[in-house]
Amino acid sequence: HVQLVESGGGLVQPGGSLTLSCTASGFPFSTYSIGWFRQAPGKEREGVASILRGGGRIQYAASVAGRFTISQDNAKNAVYLQMNSLKPEDTAMYYCAASSVICDLARTCYNNWGQGTQVTVS
Fold this sequence. Notes:
Elements: E1 3-7, E2 10-12, E3 18-25, E4 33-39, E5 46-52, E6 57-60, E7 68-73, E8 78-83, E9 92-99, E10 112-113, E11 117-121
Parallel strand pairs: 2-11
Antiparallel strand pairs: 1-3, 3-8, 4-5, 4-9, 5-6, 7-8, 9-10, 9-11
């Protein structure tokens, strides 16, 4: 079955950096859409970055464009989210998601989710 495991979250000061990892198993990883989402307390889950089928198309939310970079390593079945210049408003639980269809940043497009990793910027 599809399994997604996030790691790399933590506490960081404003202006700092973190790299999140999403390790996948149970599906043909390189053919899927992979997205990073985040959810802050009291807010809806929002799309942060997505990568289509190993890099064919990459999209970012306007709030993170220029600061975050998504990348994929098919040999390791992993997707990464490099986060630079972090701000307190980036504080949230970050989730990795996968879909067999073409998806960008629409949450409802994804049907496989990890359990999340917490990022706190303070």
